[in-house]
Amino acid sequence: MANIKSAKKRIAVTAKKHMRNKSVRSSTKTAVKKVLTAIEAGDKTKAAEAHRLAIKAIDQAASKGIFHKNTASRKKSQLTKLLNG
Questions:
Q1: Does residue 6 lie in a domain region?
Q2: Whole-prediction pTM value?
Q3: What distance, in Å, lies between the first and last C-alpha atoms of the chain?
């Protein structure tokens, strides 16, 4: 355990950021999963709406630095390919 005040603060800040990042990553995964299930069910309108929300979630995660911009781009591209395919 840290003894220095600034080190204790760093631990607290890091834990808070970790939880926030984990939450955003989890909600993004859920949004992507909703697109995949809608595509498998064959519901085109539901899949399109879920796709729009998933793209938004991925973009927000990338803007917060949770995903690298190339990773976000790859995820969006793969989802769009599945939707159109």
A1: no
A2: 0.84
A3: 53
